[in-house]
Amino acid sequence: MKPNLFLFIAVSAVAVLAHAQEAPLNWQPVAPGVWSARIGKPEAVDLLKTAGIQPKVDALNKLGKLAFPTSMKASVARLANGQTHLRLPLREGEQLFGLGLNFKNVLQRKRVFNLHADHYGGRDSGRTHAPVPFYVSSEGYGVLINSARYVTVYAGTGVRKDSAHPPKIKDRNTDRTWEAQPYSDAVEVLIPAAGVEVFLFAGRSAMEAVQRYNLYNGGGALPPKWGLGFTQRVPTKFTADEVRQEADAFEQHGFPLDFIGLEPGWQSRSYPGTFAWDKGRFPDPAGFVKEMLQRGIRLNLWLNPYVSPESPIYDAVKPYTGTHTVWNGLAPDFTLPQVQRAFKTFFAKEHLDLGISGYKIDEIDGYDQWLWPDVASFPSGLSGEQMRQIYGLLVQRQTADWFRARNQRTWGLVRGSNAGASALPYVIYNDYYDHRDFITALCNSSFLGVLWTPEVRASKTAEEWLRRMQSVCFSPLAMLNAWADGTKPWTFPEVEAQVKEVALLRMRLLPYIYTAFAQYHFEGKPPVRAMYLTEGFTASSQQQAGKLDSTANPYATALRQEVKDQFMLGDNLLVAPMFAGDKSRKVILPAGKWYDFYTGKLAGAGEIITVTPGLDQIPLFVRDGGIIPLIPAATRAPKHDDILPVEVRHYGESASRFALYDDDGETFDYERGAFTWTDLMASRDVNGSLQGKVELPQNARAVRYHDFKWVFMTKP
Ligand code: GAL
């Protein structure tokens, strides 16, 4: 046989074999409405195990059984060259959401992602803080690729020549409906490992699929009440005295403040850090933390986990660290008990015992040129790649466990996360700073079981400052990060009053926001929600023909309309942020009537409206029948023994009901039943006018609200 011919036969045989290996996924039920399939030999380390998820079985049972999504029966997998390929069916008209914490787009069909933990670099490529390999379909199911590898997802881009649903072939010369990206009938996934576990979450809607995903991951994190108050991060080299003065200034200005974040300079050395207090700047850490707690202000400590040779734990962790350093610090292998013990012992003694309330876990995402390279390895046997994908989860889980062991809730910041994080008490932030993109990230976080804050740092103008402050007050973490600039909420005196007003409005809304988080925890509904997860929202994701030009759009790619600059906070409140320079904006109102939050007046019904709100306000709308409980404005979040009066606002015309959640706001006793749901009900009396009624729960004595005053905002 001629060598070429031999080669040809050999190659063909391998090719046939590779095709032959393509096999249907063997889906097995794992919880009501949740299935998993194992392909090849899944790796020992994966995302959900790393996150330590504990499925909320009761809540999943309550959501109920659902039939297996028929279309997904056609899913296939193939093992080849030490890699796993998946092909998951995609129907025409289906839209996809998720696939990493993206900042530019919310509609992900027809895009490609290489999901890779990194600092977001300005492009939705998959390189981001939470490269969660999870997508949700508008048809009401979600797919999770439970792999700690750099997973590539072709979200409806590839077209197979043997496709059962081939796209029509069109001629660009003559056919105006020609598309640069023809229809593709599949999501294709490349996992660089010889096996993987995949999960399928069913739902009657995209929201229900997200709920199942979050509940399977243990339900969303319930913050301590103080975590929802305002937080200020002070300049990196502030001393204890300067922090005291900062707290004084907040009091003088009457601004809310629940916790202060200390940046790298609280440590005796930083980059790499020691995790030990700098005794020059903080001569008496214990006394200082205690004094701040007595003032009702908690402290959060910045860290990145890279260990300085001068750290007291250096010797203990050294044998259990990766081959490469980061900023000359050791990169601990947090999968190893030796590392976990060394950190826990030291951090407990030096921070938690003193009363530190939480951490900001920085720089565990990238940037590439700073982090260990992929050629690095770790003593547990994990590769640089795997460790990079899970590092954020590892540090979040470990620190969260320290607080849980004390029956104390924490609320902190993290720059890297991944799938399985729903129950972890951390909010993602970054160094990128585009206000619009920050709002898009808020929308996207809702598909992925992660939380995001559009933190405020500095601004060029008073207008931008106010607009950013207005947005951040409707996010999971109302934060000013002044680590570099020393900005204060009143940095622009010309808008101080408006900034204060919105910060105090957030404080008034805490019972409502806290209830939204309780829904996250008990029902899996994210507190901040993209419009696409909202009932009655039908914005078409239709494409518009793109105009052919030789620079920006050389293939006449179709343009898509995406709704990514407005979102829901909880069930009833629609938030439509304003951006500097804009005098008006369009707001898409879902089906039914919607009312202006401030005036109670009808704003529109299932339509697109244009609003011109002026500088003072961020546009907020409430659905018909929406009930919003408010407490009196205060500079601190409610404490466990506060009993507060409630103003119950009702909007619109419909009779309705709102279940108001409450608990001690500090401990995990809610997991053992120590919580209350109070029923706020608006109904029409015999004369047809609206009346409010409050139905206290059986354990009424535990309710921390009293004196309910109904305000019907919409005048008949
Ligand atoms: C950055 C972080 C900032 C700030 C700074 C301190 O990586 O994103 O928020 O904490 O480090 O060095």
What is this structure's SSE topology?
Elements: H1 3-20, E1 23-24, E2 28-31, E3 34-40, H2 47-51, H3 57-63, E4 76-80, E5 83-89, E6 96-98, E7 111-117, E8 127-128, E9 134-137, E10 141-145, E11 151-155, E12 186-191, E13 195-202, H4 206-216, E14 230-233, H5 240-253, E15 259-262, H6 285-294, E16 298-303, H7 314-317, E17 321-326, E18 329-332, H8 337-350, E19 358-361, H9 384-404, E20 412-414, E21 426-428, H10 435-445, H11 462-472, E22 478-481, H12 496-508, H13 510-523, E23 528-530, E24 543-544, E25 559-560, E26 567-569, E27 573-575, E28 585-588, E29 593-596, E30 602-605, E31 608-611, E32 620-623, E33 627-630, E34 644-650, E35 656-663, E36 675-684, E37 690-695, E38 705-712
Parallel strand pairs: 7-8, 14-15, 14-22, 15-16, 16-19, 19-20, 20-21, 34-38
Antiparallel strand pairs: 1-4, 2-3, 3-13, 4-5, 5-12, 6-9, 7-11, 9-10, 10-13, 11-12, 17-18, 23-26, 24-25, 26-27, 27-32, 28-31, 29-30, 29-32, 33-34, 35-36, 36-37
Helix pairs in contact: 3-4, 4-13
The protein binds beta-D-galactopyranose.
Count of helices? 13
Q: What general outline do the C-alpha atoms trace?
A: globular
- What Rg do the Cα atoms give? 26 Å
Task: Enumerate the strands of the largest sheet in spatial order, edge to edge or round the barrel.
Answer: 1-4-5-12-11-7-8
Main sheet? 7 strands, mixed
Q: Average the pLDDT over all residues and give the rounded result.
A: 95
State the end-to-end CA separation. 92 Å
Low-confidence stretches: 11-20
Structural class: alpha+beta
Strand content: 25-35%
Ligands in the structure?
beta-D-galactopyranose
Strand tally: 38
Helix % is 10-25%
